Every structure is written in structure tokens, then in C-alpha cells.
Amino acid sequence: MVRFARQRRVFFFEEPIFTGSWPHLHLETCPQTGVEIATPFLREGTSSVDAAQAQRDMLADLIADQDVVLHSHGPGLQPAIETVTRGV
Questions:
Q1: How far apart are CA 6 and CA 77, in angstroms?
Q2: Cβ–Cβ contacts within 10 Å for residue 42, how many?
């Protein structure tokens, strides 16, 4: 990821954090690597179906009209990545 981040934007999409706040995507750039860390925040009690859809929507908004490299930690986001990037 670091190698790619030298040439283009790289987003590391983390697993969601469930809180009492409104759903949003927090972006933070790692100062050492330049990799952009995307952390989805979802409301506590969000169903797994709604959480998956919210992450797909956040991911789609994030990569719209951008040349990015996607990497997720663990298999949980892989279906969302495949759905969003289909046809890209």
C-alpha cells in the first residue's frame, strides 16, 4: 500500500465502529505512509444488512470519479468492494 500511496491516493477502509453518533466516514491520512484511512462510523443497533448497505454507500461516495487503490482489513468489506467496483 505504501508503494502505491507514493503514486496515487490509497484508502484503507477499516471495519465500522458503532457509536451513538450519526453515520459518517472519517478520513485520516497516515503521516508516515500517505495512506488514507477511512473509518465508517455507524449508529449502535444498526442491523447487519443496513450496516453493509451504509458501507457500500460510503465506499461508493469515496471512490466516485477517483483513481484509487482499495484495501480492506479482513473479509467483511470484500462484498462491498466487489459491488462498488463492478463495472469500473
A1: 24
A2: 19
The cell for 4 is 502505491
Q: Say which residues have a Cβ less than 8 Å from residue 61's Cβ, sequence separation at least 6.
A: 25
Rounded CA-CA distance 21/80 in Å is: 22
Q: What is the pLDDT of residues 12-32, one digit of tens each?
A: 889 999 999 899 999 999 999
Helix axes 78-85, 48-63, angle to 10 degrees: 50
Q: For the whole model, what pTM was predicted?
A: 0.74
Q: Helix or strand or coil: residue 14?
A: coil
Spacing of C-alpha 39 from chain mean position: 6
Q: At 69, phi and psi to the nearest 5? A: -115, 130
* pLDDT tens-digit readout, 44-81: 999 999 998 998 899 888 888 776 666 666 666 666 66
Number of other CB atoms surrounding residue 87 within 10 Å: 4
